[in-house]
Write a structure and sequence with these properties.
- The chain is an all-alpha fold.
- The protein contains 19 helices and no strands.
- The longest helix has 26 residues, at about 155-180.
- The chain is globular, with a radius of gyration of 21 Å.
- It starts with a helix and ends with a helix.
């Protein structure tokens, strides 16, 4: 029992700072304790639950492991594999949203790891960066873009045209950065690889349900989540038992944390003292707010002080990288990884990319 608790604690170390922050905020806002349920975006939570169930089904079918074996036969080295998966992550995030793209790409990458002696953790980290970059282009790529798109009644085309210069800048930096990080290292296949037994029925049902579920959520048909839960409970109980429920709990805690942070008086007072008529100020305010409260609540928070949607969008898009909680997508990606020093490794690359992209965007678009 003690060993299981140690493993559970080790796999969920990311919880600790958010729980401690929550306790501090409850001390500051004791009157808010009974209202915490109002601070959670329950639509996001139940959507995440549905996605976790379906993608766990895809993973447990072992079909991704089979696909990864086929893919690896055509790839010669680690750099080519990294560029392939990074590009796939960026493209998927444009149309499927950054979270959903990760639910597809990261399990595929981890399945590849089972056949290789190469450590693919760095690739997963760059996939997290890539979905933040790719999703910046379209209004449906991530929740913050969706919010800004609706709030200012932009057309789809106008939004994409305005975001394209930022997207292109971030893509070029990402590719150059990846080129320096990933070497032409030969992929080392494990000598003995077990025969893969796939559950074709589980895979076909899961892959069929995924687009249907996404469409249902787009139409605000949230009753699809309990339907999905009951379906898997009846047909594939093992999937329900394997779902990453701690991730759901983490997201709930984060929603409460970030909402309470935005209500701190000194935070609002500080923003009001800034020159929010300046595009560069709005950009940096959005960027740094993302590092403090994640880019989705940051976009909502800064929009209270400025109508410069483009500068806000640029700031929260660049600010989605850096600290792990700057974007919920980052946490989803890292939750898939096991082992020591995952967080330090993630921040090593993500913070460097944040600095590079911030400098480039400032000099290209905001330097007086």
């Amino acid at each position: 029992m003690r060993e299981k608790f140690k493993v559970l604690l080790k796999d969920n170390t990311i919880f600790l700072p958010f729980i401690l922050l929550l306790l501090v905020l409850f001390f500051v806002f004791p009157e808010k304790i009974m209202e915490t349920h109002k601070f959670v975006d329950w639509r996001t939570i139940i959507t995440l639950l549905g996605l976790l169930i379906i993608t766990t089904g895809i993973k447990e079918s072992a079909f991704l492991r089979k696909i990864s074996r086929i893919t690896l036969r055509k790839v010669k080295n680690e750099r080519i594999l990294a560029f392939y998966l990074i590009a796939l992550s960026a493209v998927f995030s444009m149309v499927l949203t950054n979270d959903i793209a990760l639910f597809i790409i990261v399990p595929l990458t981890i399945s590849m790891q089972e056949s290789l002696d190469n450590d693919l953790k760095k690739i997963v980290i760059f996939e997290a960066i890539a979905v933040n970059v790719g999703s910046a282009l379209t209004p449906i790529g991530n929740p913050q873009n969706l919010f800004l798109w609706h709030k200012w009644n932009n057309s789809f085309v106008n939004f994409v045209v305005n975001m394209f210069p930022l997207f292109l800048t971030m893509v070029v930096i990402l590719l150059v950065f990846a080129l320096t990080v990933f070497k032409n290292k030969t992929l080392l296949f494990k000598e003995k690889t077990e025969n893969i037994k796939t559950d074709n029925r589980l895979f076909l049902i899961s892959i069929f349900l995924l687009p249907l579920f996404i469409a249902a959520i787009e139409l605000d048909f949230y009753v699809s989540v309990p339907i999905v839960f009951l379906l898997y409970l009846l047909l594939f109980k093992k999937v329900i038992l394997k779902v990453d429920y701690p991730l759901i709990i983490l997201f709930i805690i984060m929603f409460i944390d970030f909402h309470l942070i935005s209500e701190l008086g000194f935070v609002s007072s500080f923003i009001e003292k800034l020159n929010m008529n300046s595009s560069s100020t709005v950009f940096f305010t959005s960027l740094f707010s993302s590092q403090i409260m994640s880019n989705v609540p940051a976009s909502i928070f800064v929009s209270k002080f400025s109508a410069n949607w483009k500068a806000i969008a640029y700031g929260v898009s660049v600010g989605g990288n850096g600290l792990i909680f700057a974007s919920l997508a980052n946490i989803i990606a890292i939750r898939f990884l096991k082992g020591e020093k995952v967080l330090s490794s993630y921040h090593k690359y993500s913070i460097i990319y944040l600095l590079l992209s911030t400098i480039a965007v400032y000099f290209l678009f905001y330097l007086p």
